[in-house]
Amino acid sequence: MTYCVATLLEEGIVFLSDSRTNAGIDNISTFRKMTVFERKGDRVLVLMSAGNLAISQSVVSLLWADRATGDDDGPFIMDAANLYEAAQCVGRAIRTVHTRDAAALKEHGIDFSVSFILGGQIRGDRPRLFQLYSAGNFIEASAETCYFQIGESKYGKPIIDRMVRPETTLRDAAKCALISMDSTIRSNLSVGLPLDLAIYPRDTLALTQRRTIGADDEYFQMVRSRWGSALRSAFQDLPESPWG
Amino acid sequence: MTYCVATLLEEGIVFLSDSRTNAGIDNISTFRKMTVFERKGDRVLVLMSAGNLAISQSVVSLLWADRATGDDDGPFIMDAANLYEAAQCVGRAIRTVHTRDAAALKEHGIDFSVSFILGGQIRGDRPRLFQLYSAGNFIEASAETCYFQIGESKYGKPIIDRMVRPETTLRDAAKCALISMDSTIRSNLSVGLPLDLAIYPRDTLALTQRRTIGADDEYFQMVRSRWGSALRSAFQDLPESPWG
After folding, report:
1. Which one in A85, A182, B16, B123 has a CA-CA gap of 20 to 30 Å to A231?
2. Which pLDDT belongs to residue B1?
């Protein structure tokens, strides 16, 4: 499994992904789930994936392979005119892999299961965030629902539901994403370090931060230990249950 | 869906269940998930269920129907010599319903899916807590893993993982269960009020608290509002992310 989260804010977009994959509990590996398509001053697109690794890797490979001319029905993702077109590029790549692999997977009892988060900004368009499904269809984040999660999303959802709004700062959203990831890692073995963090400040058309966070990262270590103790204090400060 | 949690502590056992069921998003109802088998001074058994409501209700009905003589292979649950035998009673009832209904359900494309938490104490035995699966098999809580959850368990797992140990008091475990339930209700529409809370203090062989908690419950209202603001304070107190 995996866990990826992205939040679309007034200030920009924060992306965070883990790097654990597993094909059974005795077959655990580390693969990066984040791919960046960037041309400074023109576009930044960050793509994160969850689901079957063979499918998601094929989708990314196909997106790069379209470099020369695009695919049959549209442009190369680096030439898409806006984020909606870029999401269509990813959707078409998913469908291409489906056409090629789904029947063979089905014969082996394997679902064609993959999901992506795509976000960023293309010159002339606003920052936008999309979530794509196995069928290559997609939805777009809005002010009402300004974040998407894929993979093992439930453990880390409550803290985001409580903390993140469109007016949240990039720094606070990054902190919240790391807490959400920490809660997920503690409760689910299939999500693990290192993490990939990318931060895109609105209208800069360049990533300010793209960072790999391992067990030795000082800020993440501090979040892990201090969030746990802050929660315990908050818990103890809450009036005792009248029932016991 | 549903959410139930129980924690086995040195002081006793805390049980909490919600009461929402849904057969599709346009078919939402309220059904209690908690059944108590109690004979003061002899035994307290609390059973909570998740999964297909027709199955779980049938299991409970069969357990009561065994009142006269028990089932073919063992005693009535109120005559079980210890908690392990009581868990076997529930397991046999699950298998009886499986034998009767599973094939018909399969014809309609419905999985035979049900799970239970059973906990309490029988005179002469220690307090014990079990989780039962669709096959009627079960596992028992221990000092290393002192809680069980069934239903929509992921949202509310991180707070329990961080807060609950065998030495946690009944009052703190009840508070933690309510926070865990609140996080789940906020993030998942298929879990809802009212809640059933039962608290069993070790060696009393009687429930001290069996309480229905609705939206107007003062303590739960306080938990909902103050936990949210305590989390926000803890979040703001945590040093700002160096990346933003």
Report:
1. B16
2. 80
